[in-house]
């Protein structure tokens, strides 16, 4: 009798610890609901010096652009693997940077300054460093966005010290552009200013004035870059969304001035929040930001439909991210969910803060060895196509799902994120156009490709991620490892284990939107 009781208790314990749930994931493949840019994945580089510190830690090291080792083979290979990666150089100190071109001959280093913006003095980008940056960009094939200083020529308002007034002076920017053109440097886009809209962060510009300034930038670009094929895009306003400010800016800027409407997202709060690890695993919390994505997208469509909405910077937790969270596997629940969500709300590009630097870096700040989110971004870049499909299921909210037309061939690619620590989801792909045919497969024996990402040793705060059970580590030649799929019978369900992220490429899924 005691033995029977013990067996029952063990079985009860196992059932309570681990369970399974069947889920029908319905995919609407007749039409797409949104489109992204071909290079949706973007990463940022920043200006922060090594003495940028928060919460008694200084996590930037030598990763700011003035100190970054642009000759490091791991860094070079990590960027090359995207072929190409979109990179945005900008950030909080952007509006304090002058460029050593034209009449600007003196070039002083940025230093701590108590009354300076963000606690730093103005700094200078030397001609030599600009050459080194562009050599790196050319070598790695990057699509490059450069953030210009928008405060040149402006002064503090007497009534409000944070409010900057006056017209933008483009002289220094003009000199940088002319030099870049003479050297054949490829700039994909110019962005004007960083976080200057609405309330600003440390400084702000009136929406009507900013519209006037960015119109001047557009005129400058049109004047200097005559070839339409190589003409850089113009982006802005690069700040936090406020409906009144954004609508006023877009209403005053006119059609054809901006190519991308950029906004920033730090929806997880401060990096030292003890609840950060719970936020990134809470689907209700993660969904709170969806309204912002929807509102930005709708504003763009109303005022400047030719342009697209971009997330120009997003690190999740502000002030350099959260130590042992933002750089570990668990952060992928937030990051990949953000990619899926913004794509459904018709955002064209998503720039992750940062490629290197801070706790939220995709690469280790000192070694440049990839953190887990780097591999999630690389898989997205290689597998998820431009056309976004509608998906739905009636299962647990802990299972997030997104679908796109496949980037590499026929069919669709589905992203599945399991935030449960105890439930395995057995997912069937159901084609809404052919509901009588389970999982939407055609009459072929094409194997389904699956990429299962799990944390090392089951520890969601691990900096090592496994692909189909094998740790992703650099090769002996310091290159990114091959990322081969697991081949699965298309008639079977997709088994999404607890605390895992899965990309599924179903070649045989027939979707007219993907023809």
TrEMBL record:
Protein name as catalogued: Heparanase 1
Coiled-coil annotated spans: none
GO molecular function: beta-glucuronidase activity
Organism: Vigna unguiculata
Superkingdom in the source lineage: Eukaryota
Signal sequence extent: 1-20
Subcellular location per the Swiss-Prot or TrEMBL entry: Lysosome membrane; Secreted
Membrane among keywords: yes
Record's bilayer topology term: Peripheral membrane protein
UniProt xrefs under InterPro entries: GH, Glyco_hydro_79
Primary role: Endoglycosidase which is a cell surface and extracellular matrix-degrading enzyme. Cleaves heparan sulfate proteoglycans (HSPGs) into heparan sulfate side chains and core proteoglycans.
Cellular component, GO, one term: lysosomal membrane
Transmembrane region(s): none
Similarity comment: family membership: Belongs to the glycosyl hydrolase 79 family.
Keyword Cytoplasm: no
Keywords: Glycoprotein, Hydrolase, Lysosome, Membrane, Secreted, Signal
């Amino acid at each position: 009798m005691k033995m029977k009781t013990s067996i029952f208790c063990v079985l009860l314990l196992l059932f309570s610890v681990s369970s399974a749930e069947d889920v029908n994931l319905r995919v609407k493949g007749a039409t797409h609901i949104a489109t992204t840019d071909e290079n949706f994945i973007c990463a940022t580089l920043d200006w922060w010096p090594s003495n940028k510190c928060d919460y008694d830690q200084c996590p930037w090291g030598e990763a700011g652009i003035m100190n970054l080792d642009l000759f490091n083979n791991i860094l070079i290979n990590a960027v090359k693997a995207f072929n190409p990666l979109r990179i945005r150089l900008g950030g909080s100190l952007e509006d304090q940077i002058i460029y050593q071109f034209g009449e600007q001959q003196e070039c002083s280093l940025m230093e701590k300054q108590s009354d300076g913006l963000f606690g730093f003095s103005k700094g200078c980008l030397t001609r030599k460093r600009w050459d080194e940056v562009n050599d790196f960009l050319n070598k790695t094939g990057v699509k490059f966005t450069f953030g210009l200083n928008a405060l040149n020529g402006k002064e503090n308002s007497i009534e409000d010290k944070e409010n900057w007034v006056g017209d933008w002076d483009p002289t220094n920017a003009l000199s940088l552009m002319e030099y870049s053109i003479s050297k054949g440097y490829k700039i994909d886009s110019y962005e004007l200013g960083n976080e200057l809209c609405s309330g600003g962060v440390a400084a702000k510009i009136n929406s009507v004035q900013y519209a006037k300034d960015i119109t001047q930038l557009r005129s400058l670009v049109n004047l200097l870059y005559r070839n339409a094929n190589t003409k850089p895009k113009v982006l802005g306003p690069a700040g936090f969304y406020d409906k009144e400010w954004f609508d006023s800016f877009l209403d005053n800027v006119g059609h054809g001035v901006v190519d991308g409407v950029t906004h920033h997202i730090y929806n997880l709060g401060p990096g030292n929040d003890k609840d950060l690890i719970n936020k990134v695993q809470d689907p209700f919390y993660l969904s709170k930001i969806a309204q912002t994505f929807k509102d930005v997208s709708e504003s763009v469509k109303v005022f400047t439909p030719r342009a697209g909405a971009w997330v120009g910077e997003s690190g999740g937790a502000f002030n350099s991210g959260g130590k042992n969270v933002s750089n570990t596997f668990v952060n992928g629940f937030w990051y990949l969910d953000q990619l899926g969500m913004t794509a459904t709300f018709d955002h064209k590009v998503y720039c992750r803060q940062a490629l290197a630097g801070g706790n939220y870096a995709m690469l280790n700040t000192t070694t440049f060895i990839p953190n887990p989110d780097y591999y999630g971004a690389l898989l997205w870049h290689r597998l998820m196509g431009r056309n976004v499909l509608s998906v739905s299921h009636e299962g647990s909210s802990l299972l997030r799902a997104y679908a796109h037309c496949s980037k590499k061939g026929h069919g669709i690619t589905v992203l599945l994120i399991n935030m449960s620590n105890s439930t395995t989801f057995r997912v069937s792909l159901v084609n809404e156009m052919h509901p009588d045919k389970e999982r939407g497969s055609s009459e072929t024996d094409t194997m389904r490709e699956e990429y299962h990402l799990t944390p090392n040793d089951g520890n969601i705060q691990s900096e090592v991620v496994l692909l189909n059970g094998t740790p992703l580590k650099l090769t002996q030649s310091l290159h990114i490892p091959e990322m081969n799929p697991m081949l699965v019978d298309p008639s079977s369900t997709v088994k999404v284990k607890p605390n895992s992220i899965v990309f599924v490429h179903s070649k045989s899924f027939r979707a007219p939107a993907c023809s």
